[in-house]
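Re: that backbone. Tokens:
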């Protein structure tokens, strides 16, 4: 009979019951702590019987290392002792015929007859039935064997993570999960990753998946660093994510950190050093080339006599990032612990752009009441100081006349009123953030009777930071300020957020008649979130001594020189939820989820939502008709359907709120603030609802050499949240936040793993992921509100060119919409095709979007990649290991705004070299057209890691692994702009972290090539 493992680690039932459980757990902890580390306990089953033999010894593991906490029991009695930290024990036995039983979790039990031995040393070996082939995945409020999963779940463990240099946990799994799009705006250590799973699901709601860290809903990723993460699980479809209700529309990412394990004390130290080099920069004219163009008459600009590479002067050529992590862990079968200390100093490729962090994480697990009670506590905190000053200015410095200088002839910084001297700004201003992020969570599990477990989980997270900015009296900002010329500027701001969660649950597991397996969990969830902040600034400081630490020493407070602001808001979410898992004969499985949830964000008529889900699985290989297919080791068919919601909107969005209208002079001669409604009430406002169907196939073939999963999905989000024009009257304001519209996506995802070569000295395995995606805006109107189309993607820059995307009802997301290039006139003026296919001048083009039968505008391309793929190769030869990771995006388009603006001689500063070759015909104003839209497909050698494992014949050094990693080594593409990998590929065109879908900005953070040297040591 095959052994199946289903392990749920969940919170408990009722709040008052949870209080009792916590009390019991604390009592147990005290009792356990008072018990000494036992190496000699002369317990006797018969108090009148005298021990006639004292036995001592040592217990070691399969590597010869001491095992603390091993139970040494006299067979047939209750007499038991435990080995100490050195694996040693001492026990009094009644006779030479006594049998000692040695047992430890995860190891095979051994029995030894004492005979005439006074010293017994034995070695325990891991149990032969260790389920090496069974992968345990997190599914929310518990875990389950991958063989029993019926929804779409992706699991990535530490062995699959990218090597070194992770600034964010999701850096570890870039390209590892089919259907998960991760976009970062360069290597700036102070910016996050934009995350999208299976396409856009909202217009104005939250588009990021819910993060659950060690059970904490909405956990803060700042508290994580790469060496503390055990695994990352992604709940892709609604049939699994429904357990989280209105937080799960965009999917759920569950991060599990490493915990202490029973065994000898272990110390692990890891570190890396990373160096970043510029990989690709915009191809502008050098100072000599610019000067030559002036002399030839091709440019009508002035030569100021200098030669300056403004772009290069923003680069931190001496950047060096480092990471150090020390972890200690160990314990017994009753108590286990893990603690880690981390230090990171991350430097960007930009000057004055870095982040220094100190982190601490602690986990303690304690068992008691004859192992019926388990209590676990996790504590984590992170202190960081971020330099926020650098990271920008790339566009302005690239586009400056390179014959200018950053300095005046007298050596002072050169300022002008048409641009900012970014080089001087980095030297004359400061912008720092001092931040502390902390979390604490506790969980208590009590086994009431066999199969019935009550649990209580509680957590609190706190994020607090102080921002400080100062601009010297001599800075450009101060010198050019007309209200307080030559006076310093200072700003001070604070932010605090706190989140609380309490989740009691009750879980029942039972196997009936050897074939029916039932697992059920029910619970209650309470979440409260609060945030508040304030800011103040002043000008006119007569010296730079106190900077932002004494705002009142600036100019007398007035609206012209000073400002002050503050805010506070909160929200509450409560829910009742349940999940039932049923399996029959290891063949047929079903999962049912129901969550009933209420949120303070929604209108009075729609405070509550219900989210049901169902999924089923069929283990085909358990059927008799599959027995003849010997090459199929395992095959499971999955089908799931579920509802999730989106409550990621502003607090009080459904209520009428008041806002300040400015200070005015009242009849009494004083100035007072005026107030008025700044939002219409909407008692019918509710959550967005996503319905998703997923069909999947999991398989293992050819003696488990080839494993993988294929998923096909279709999801539709209804009742989209957005702002619509409202009539006046009856409404006070002319806009209303309401639910209108539908958006959908569909696609196919494939994940494969193949062991190509399995030899003692050499192995080769590979992992492949691939996905395809189609995303469209089905509707944006209803009976009351009519919107034919929606525009997204501000082009920005010169020319006031508007938005790049026009998305019509029923149209695909990310469609570039505009004028189709038809050539140039002999004098360099633009020509475009009209709807009849005729080449006409720009003033003859019909730019209307309201009448599709009259407009000359057409679809020009699509910014959403149609295909994603990655390929990881893992090689091992003796002690050497090599990883080669490639990934790519295919069949999508990018708007090259750098070429649009700086490939046109209309610009008065520096220009691209292509201005005088590829774009030399242009003698006209800026235009948005498919002339600047290029194919963005690319393949990237994203990582190559070469490592070596040292083998030492010593008990004190368990492992030593050194490695060298190269990241972002080469990109193969026909795109002529910046690195296409750093062009945002998710959203609808709205701004995300300063980027917009498919639009290659004119001054992105530079793409870098990184080299990492690291080591991992185990003691």
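Recovered sequence:
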């Amino acid at each position: 009979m095959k052994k199946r493992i289903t392990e749920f680690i969940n919170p408990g039932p009722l709040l008052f019951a949870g209080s009792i459980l916590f009390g019991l757990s604390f009592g147990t902890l005290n009792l356990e702590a008072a018990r000494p580390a036992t190496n000699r306990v002369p317990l006797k089953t018969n108090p009148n019987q005298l021990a006639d033999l004292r036995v001592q010894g040592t217990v070691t593991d399969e590597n010869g290392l001491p095992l603390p906490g091993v139970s040494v029991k006299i067979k047939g009695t209750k007499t038991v002792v435990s080995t100490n930290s050195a694996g040693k024990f001492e026990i009094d036995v009644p006779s030479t015929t006594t049998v000692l039983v040695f047992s430890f979790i995860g190891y095979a039990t051994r029995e030894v007859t004492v005979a005439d031995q006074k010293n017994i040393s034995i070695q325990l070996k891991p149990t032969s039935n260790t389920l090496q082939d069974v992968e345990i995945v997190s599914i929310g409020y518990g875990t389950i064997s991958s063989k029993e999963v019926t929804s779409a779940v992706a699991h990535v463990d530490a062995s699959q993570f990218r090597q070194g240099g992770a600034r964010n946990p999701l850096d570890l799994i870039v390209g590892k999960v089919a259907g998960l799009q991760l976009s970062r705006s360069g290597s700036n250590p102070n910016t996050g990753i934009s995350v999208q799973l299976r396409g856009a699901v909202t217009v104005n709601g939250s588009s990021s998946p819910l993060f659950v860290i060690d059970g904490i809903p909405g956990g803060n990723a700042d508290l994580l660093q790469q060496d503390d993460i055990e695994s990352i699980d992604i709940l892709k479809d609604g049939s699994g994510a429904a357990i989280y209700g209105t937080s799960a529309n965009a999917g759920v990412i569950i991060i599990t950190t490493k915990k202490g394990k029973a065994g000898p004390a272990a110390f692990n130290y890891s570190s890396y050093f990373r160096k970043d080099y510029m990989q690709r920069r915009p191809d502008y004219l050098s100072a000599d080339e610019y000067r030559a163009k002036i002399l030839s008459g091709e440019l009508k600009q002035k030569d100021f006599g200098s030669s300056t590479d403004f772009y290069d002067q923003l680069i931190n050529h001496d950047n060096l990032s480092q990471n150090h992590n020390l972890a200690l862990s160990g314990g017994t079968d009753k108590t286990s612990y893990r603690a880690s200390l981390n230090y990171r100093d991350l430097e960007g490729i930009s000057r004055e752009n870095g982040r220094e962090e100190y982190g601490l994480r602690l986990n303690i697990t304690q068992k008691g009441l004859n192992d019926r009670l388990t209590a676990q506590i996790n504590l984590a905190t992170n202190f960081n100081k971020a330099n926020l000053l650098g990271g920008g200015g790339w566009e302005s410095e690239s586009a400056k006349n390179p014959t200018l200088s950053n300095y005046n002839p007298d050596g002072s910084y050169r300022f002008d009123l048409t641009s900012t001297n970014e080089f001087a700004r980095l030297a004359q201003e400061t912008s720092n953030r001092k931040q502390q992020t902390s979390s604490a969570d506790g969980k208590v599990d009590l086994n009431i009777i066999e199969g019935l477990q009550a649990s209580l989980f509680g957590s609190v997270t706190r994020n607090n930071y102080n921002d400080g900015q100062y601009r010297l009296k001599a800075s450009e900002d101060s010198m050019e300020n007309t209200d307080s010329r030559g006076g310093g500027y200072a700003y001070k701001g604070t932010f605090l957020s706190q989140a609380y969660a309490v989740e009691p649950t009750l879980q029942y597991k039972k196997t009936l008649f050897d074939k029916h397996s039932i697992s059920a969990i029910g619970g209650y969830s309470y979440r409260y979130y609060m945030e508040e902040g304030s800011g103040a600034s002043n000008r006119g400081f007569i010296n730079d001594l106190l900077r932002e630490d004494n705002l009142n020493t600036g100019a007398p407070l007035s609206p012209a020189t000073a400002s002050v602001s503050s805010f506070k808001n909160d929200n509450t979410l409560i829910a009742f939820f349940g999940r039932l898992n049923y399996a029959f004969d290891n063949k047929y499985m079903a999962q049912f989820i129901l969550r009933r949830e209420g949120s303070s964000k929604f209108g009075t008529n729609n405070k509550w939502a219900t989210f049901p889900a169902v999924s089923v699985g069929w283990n085909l290989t358990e059927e008799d008709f599959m027995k003849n297919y010997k090459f199929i080791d395992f095959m499971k068919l999955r089908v799931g359907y579920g509802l999730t919601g989106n409550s990621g909107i502003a607090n009080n969005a459904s209520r009428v709120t008041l806002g300040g209208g400015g200070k005015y002079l009242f009849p009494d001669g004083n100035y007072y603030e005026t107030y008025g409604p700044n939002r219409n009430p909407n008692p019918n406002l509710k959550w967005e609802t996503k319905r998703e169907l997923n069909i999947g196939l999991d398989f293992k073939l050819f003696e488990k050499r080839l494993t993988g999963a294929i998923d096909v999905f279709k999801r539709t989000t209804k009742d989209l949240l957005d702002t619509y024009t409202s009539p006046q009257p009856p409404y006070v304001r002319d806009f209303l936040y309401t639910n209108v519209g539908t958006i959908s996506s569909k696609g196919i995802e494939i994940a494969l793993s193949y062991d190509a070569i399995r030899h003692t000295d050499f192995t080769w395995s590979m992992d492949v992921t691939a996905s395809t995606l189609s995303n469209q805006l089905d509707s944006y109107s209803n009976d009351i509100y009519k919107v034919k189309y929606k525009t997204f993607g501000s082009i920005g820059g010169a020319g006031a060119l508007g938005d790049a995307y026009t998305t019509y009802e029923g149209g695909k997301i990310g469609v570039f919409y505009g004028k189709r290039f038809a050539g140039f006139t002999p004098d360099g003026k633009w020509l475009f095709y009209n709807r009849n296919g005729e080449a006409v001048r720009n003033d003859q083009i019909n730019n209307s979007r309201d009448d599709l039968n009259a407009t000359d505008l057409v679809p020009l391309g699509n910014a959403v990649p149609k295909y994603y793929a990655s390929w990881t190769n893992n090689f091992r030869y003796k002690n050497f290991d090599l990883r080669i990771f490639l990934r790519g995006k295919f069949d999508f388009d990018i708007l090259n705004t750098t070429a649009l603006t700086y490939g046109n001689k209309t610009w008065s500063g520096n220009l691209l070299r292509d201005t005088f070759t590829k774009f030399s015909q242009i003698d006209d104003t800026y235009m948005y057209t498919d002339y600047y839209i290029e194919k963005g497909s690319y393949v990237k050698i994203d990582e190559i890691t070469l490592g070596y494992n040292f083998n030492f014949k010593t008990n004190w050094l368990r492992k030593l692994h050194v490695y060298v990693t190269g990241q972002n080594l080469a990109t193969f593409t026909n795109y002529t702009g910046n690195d296409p990998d750093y062009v945002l590929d998710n959203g609808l065109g709205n701004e995300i972290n300063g980027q917009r879908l498919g639009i290659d900005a004119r001054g992105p953070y530079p793409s870098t090539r990184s080299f990492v040297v690291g080591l991992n040591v185990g003691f």
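The longest strand covers residues 516-541. Residues 15-34 form the longest helix (20 residues).
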